[in-house]
Specification:
The chain is of the alpha/beta class. The chain contains twelve helices and 16 strands. Helix 3 runs parallel beside helix 4, helix 5 crosses helix 6 and helix 11 packs across helix 12.
Amino acid sequence: MRSPNTLCLLLMMVALISSGHHGASFTASGMQKQPPVKIGLLITDSSSMAAVNGASVAIKKANEQGGINGRPLQLVVRSMEGPWGTGSKQAVSLIFEEKVWALMGSHDGRNAHLVEQAATKSIVPMVSAWSGDPTLTQAFVPWFFNCIPTDQQQAVSLSEEIYYKRKIARVVVITERSRYDSKMASDFFLKQVVLGKHPDPEVFDAGGRVNNYESLTEEILRSRPGCLVLFCSPETSAGIIKLLKQKKISIPVYGSLQTLDENLLSSAEIQYFNDVLQVTSFHWQIEEWKSFRNEYVKRFGRMPGMAAVYSYDAASILISAIRKARSDNREMIQKALREISQVGITGTISFDEHGNRRGRFGIVKIINGVPAEPQ
């Protein structure tokens, strides 16, 4: 027969578990076991593993340092592939079913808008780790933060480099207007050209020219460009640069960060960009980069690229904000993100009043899919 004290303890345990008290569970010895602190990550599709891998390195590092007040961190991943609107449903699932403390996103701009809306309605802080769409922060949503330079910020840096520093007059822009992110990035660059009162670039639409890079490249070269600016898919960008190298044509080539999505490129295709493509970048922290790179190669057997690095930085600042908040209170996490200033691989990370990343960005050449400076 059980003693009164034992019965009281059992009744208390049943009451706590049935009420869902902070999601706590108990070990066989009756000791309380802390539930994990969940961070949700939304990716474009199941093949978009670079962001998952990058964030998981940050999660592992944080858990080795004690997690959040002794509670382990857990990355919960959802793919957005499927019919339009799937992204919003997956975000809702993470918020209400998984009860994540915060969200991350590594996907295109159109899907980012869906996630942003879900996060705003549910009052959940979100950090974007890939989309450069500037309109995401133009709604003045206090829950949204962007870890990557926006298309507008990239356009300013590119135009300053091309027109003021290099004084290149004949500029050719290559875009794919059927792709949301390509159109958005090229439109902001062209607007920046108008603001600077520079000569209008010649614009080529590479849409529908997949696997026909030869004729496209010949058309481009007939315009005698002083430089190329690529706002097309990673595959198209790699195809054009490959042909330029094969033809031994040396010409400055600039582009959007989104052309370097390693999820869409083979290791061989990434090599085409070496010493040719130049993109907008902060000053990377070499030691932090080397530590991350070594851990990434050890765990996943390949070099990390831009998507993995920005995902790592986004996860790292979210973890820091949660530690500062010392609570699952989402408003406190949002406040900590707004006040954060932290050095990541890609430089110092802090946000302006709209949630855009602060800082001035330089232009760097690419080696192995990342800025040449860290090598």
